[in-house]
Amino acid sequence: MSLDFELVIKRTARKKSIGIRVFPNRVVLSAPVWTSDRQLHALVQERSAWIQDKLQAVSSVTAPTPLSRDGGTWPVQGVWVPIEVTTGSRGVSKNASGWRIQLPSPDEASIAKVWDRHLKQLAVQHLTNRVENFANQLSVQPSALKFRRYSARWGSCSASGTVTLHWPIIQAPDWVSDYLVVHELSHLHHFNHSSAFWTCVESIMPNWRAARTWLRDEGRWMLETHS
Ligand SMILES: [Zn+2]
């Protein structure tokens, strides 16, 4: 069984029945001591539709409010990360809990610009890795990989094999951006949306429907261009 979340099993003598709690990318089972791993995995399998629904609900990511001189929070790979803004020479670095933006004289416009550039760097790094990973699994090789900000689509795959990804997808949870990568790479096998294409997507991404729904219902703001 392959899971697209971390499964944590806690056995306790106090428990008489199995409880399931769902957190972003993580499912926690609290179970009586006498339960076996096999039994718990079977339960996860049986409840997988319910678990996927819950995972989707908890990983909800809405449009962030612009960062101010006091910083703020921003969704990165589906997790809200605290962002600190300080005065100093221009740059973005990691701090204990998230990121620190440093600017000689921070104002909203320059903060937005620096953060946007940083987010794009993170996206290129992460998505390039994911493309390599899934290209291997699908035995395909894009002729080129490009990143851009689209306004009405998430990605594309050209007839010559160039895969282009909407880099702001880095703000979505990993299982959603993974779906985009798998979708575009699957076009290297099937240059259409035939059932053979979807079978290909499904072979490594059984929950592709949830990801597609997430993009349509919850991810729309990521397509909006902001200054
Ligand atoms: Zn497509």
Could you explain how this protein is built, in words?
Helix 4 (174-186) crosses helix 5 (195-204). The mean pLDDT is 91. The chain has helices at 37-46, 48-58, 108-138, 174-186, 195-204, 208-217, and strands at residues 6-11, 19-23, 26-31, 72-76, 79-87, 91-94, 99-103, 144-148, 155-157, 162-166. It has 227 residues and is α/β, with parallel strands linked by helices. The protein has two domains: 6-58, no CATH class; 72-223, Zincin-like (2-Layer Sandwich). Helix content is 37%, strand content 23%. Zinc ion is lined by residues 183, 187, 193. The site of zinc ion (ZN) has 3 residues, from loops.
Average pLDDT figure: 91
Q: What global shape is seen?
A: flat
Indicate how many domains the architecture comprises: 2
Q: Biggest sheet: strands side by side, in what order?
A: 4-5-7-6
Cα gyration radius (Å): 20 Å
Q: Sheet with the most strands? A: 4 strands, mixed
Distance between the termini: 44 Å
Helix content: 25-40%
CATH domain class name of the largest domain: Alpha Beta
Structural class: alpha/beta
Instruction: Output the helix-strand order.
Output: EEEHHEEEEHEEEHHH
Flag low-confidence runs: none
